[in-house]
Every structure is written in structure tokens, then in C-alpha cells.
Fold this protein.
Amino acid sequence: MTHLALRRPALAKRLLHVVAMLLLCAGSARADIGATVRELIENQRRILVLRETASLQERPEARRAGQYLFFRNQQLGRKLVQEITQSLPDAPARYQELTLAMDDASYEDEDRLVLRNPLDAVSRRMLPDERRDAQLRMERLADLRKRLGESFEASFDRTPLRPGSVNSARWKIYLGRIMTGTTARQIMEALDRELVVTTEPTIESTEAAARARVLEWNGEELPDKAVLLTFDDGPHPVHTPAILDVLKAQGVHAVFFQVGRNLGEVWRGTAVPRLNQTIVARIVLEGHAIGNHSFSHPQLTRLDEASIGREIADTQMLIDAMVPRGNARTAEFRPPYGARNDKVMAQIDAHHLRSVVWNIDSEDWADPLPASIAHRVVQEAESAGRGIILMHDIHARTVEALPALIRELRKRGFQFARWDGRRLVVDKTPENVAPP
Ligand SMILES: [Zn+2]
């Protein structure tokens, strides 16, 4: 009796809670678009503050924090597109909500650059006569980026390039504004609970972890004046084909580190390729290679061994099923966010893979300006002399940065390496040697 008397209020309280939650969900369904836009913009600002204010010692951690926010923004962008386009009759009204949220007076034009990818995806799903406003907005953003990027393009004429990313006066003003009252340290501390990373080997390093560290590539293995392009987080239905077009036109080969859930799923121990199959086929056909970038892009360092193993194995099964033989097959694994510890290294080794990281970060995840991305890669390649370049085939800005980046690197005597099925090679083809 006493038990029941005690439990009843608790039950009623729980029911009330459930009802309140349901009401809250129903009420927030329409408010979601504005909240998603705000989070996208806030994350982009955090990414820029991390990049601009981190001290030399803070930089590795700031990069991982920035990449974490970048990946979060990919998910938010997809969510936004889904919210707007999931029901076609509602799409115009929901698009209106997006424009209202975008036009919020507390945002700068520069903030809105982060909305270009979602806008693009939304406009592709709209009817032609509904598409006009989205196209106009995209044109305005493209125009702004061009103006912001002009000084970067002009600076290619200087040899050597000046280090640092901020050349445009207007961009500098914007950065100054968003950097007021916040620092990289504060952002990293706020993210601390979500982001636990250790890259240093520990004393109890296992043999497998030690071996994986010795085998790991970071770009310094390449011959002098050679670079390898790598693209992570795809395949993407729109941007990966666009990247392939550029690479084909320029005669450059690359390695694509793909996320398993963009390929399909593993069901009862069997790989079920379901997504982006024609893109994978094209990557293979055009002489590029495919590497493993985990199944769901988690912080592997936070998982237990079994979960790390599953993340690696599931994607490898999908790759093995989609790329059964030939030169496109690699035994390469890129840890998400470059986050790895002994546990992760030992699992990579246990799956007979090689960890491949990078020494040249394009920061295409942090930088909305294609010209600035190209500038950074060329500058870092010049100072490192060789290297593995980290890029992402999930962004329009990466596609736009690529032609100038390839052209400039060649002009400065760099050659592009590729995976030939067994090792990295540098071809002596006419297009791979510097133009006169
Ligand atoms: Zn990634």
C-alpha cells in the first residue's frame, strides 16, 4: 500500500513530463529552422576564432576542436535541408522561414557564407520557379566570397607567399568583431566534455600500437616537391563528382577517405552497399584510390576496443565489396579528426591497415574562402617541401579552391603523387611536370 501511495505521484509526475515534452516537440518543430541556422553560424564563428586565436601550443587541440565543429555543421546542414524539403507542399513555406532566419539583423554577411551549402542543396530540390530567390542569395554570397578572396588571388604573385591567412581588410574587420570577448581556450574548454583526445603514445604502448605508429604516413615519406591530395568525409552526391571533374581536367589523382555510412550499411556481418555506388565506380574508373575513414566518423579515442574495431571493420567490408580488386584498393585508414591513441593504433594494426594522416591542412573545413584555402595549401607546401594535403569532398568551396591550388603548386614545381595499388608514386607524365 505504502509502495503504491509513494509511486503514484511519481507516475503522475512522469506522465506530466511526457506530455510536456510532447507539447514542446510539437511547438518547436516550426522554430527549428531558426535554431539550426543560429547554431550553424555560431559554430562557424567558433571555428574561425579557434583558427585565429589559438597559440602555437594550442593549435593541434584547436584544430581538432574546429574539425569537430565542422563535422557537427555538416550534420546540422543536412538536418536543415531535410527540415525544409521533407514535405514538398510545405517546402515553400519552410524556405520562407529559412530566409527570415538568415536575414536576422544580428548576423553579418560573412556569417551567411556558412549557409551556402544548405541553400544549394535546398534549391536543387525545389521547383524551378521557386528556386529563384535561393539562386539570388547564392549569387550574392558567391560575389562576397569573390571580393573577400581577391587579395588572396593577387598575392599568389609573391614568392615566397606570406604566411597567415588574413589578407583581406574586410575579412579582418569581420574576424575582429567575432573574436571580441572570446578565445580559443574558452571554446576548447566548453567543448572539453565532448572532445577528449590524446595523440601522444603512452608508456604502456602495445607492440601493435608501436608498429602502427612506425608505419603511419604523415606526408614526410614523399619525395621532395611531391604532394598527395586526399579528400575526406565523402562520397558526396554533388561535390565528389565536381572534384572528380577538376581532377580529370588537370590530370591529377587523389585518395578518397570515405565514411562507411555514406556507402551503405553492414547487416548481420554482410556489407550492403546502398549509397553513392556510381560515384565510387567513377573514382575507381578514373584512377583514384579509396581509403577507410571509419563508419560513423566518431572520436575513436573515446570508444572501447570493440567499438573501434567495428568502426574500422564495417567500412572496410563495404569498401571491399564495392572495390573488389585493382589499384583503387588501399590498406589505408584515416582516423576522424586525426584523433588516435594506443587503443586506436592497435586496432588499425589488427585490421592490417596503415594510419594515414597529413602534414598540410587546407583548413577547407574552417575557411569559407576558396582563394584563401588555395593560398594556405600552397604556402604550407612551400614551407614543408612535400606532403599529404587534407581536403574534404563535401564542400563547394573545396571544389572552387582546387583548380587554382593545382595550378599554383605546379607553377612552383610540385608534382602530384598517386597510389598505384602498392605504393605512392610520382608519374613523370607531361601534365605532372611544371609548365614552362
Ligand atoms: Zn573526417
